[in-house]
Amino acid sequence: MSPHRPYPEGVKVLLVVVILAAVIYLTIRVIERRGVVRPKRRRDEPRITGPDDDPDFLRGLDRPDDDR
Fold it and tell me: Model pTM greater than 0.85?
């Protein structure tokens, strides 16, 4: 190490990467808090449902299968 260089080159690169990662992380957090990334669903849009939300499907689970 020379007397004019207090840190090795690798430490400088690591420091730049850490600072860049922190800036990107904080920017994403601010954008998410403002709701820009995730648009809100309107009230009149139908909700996506699965088969366990279907009353006919649930009603059919209690019936014994005649095919066996």
Answer: no
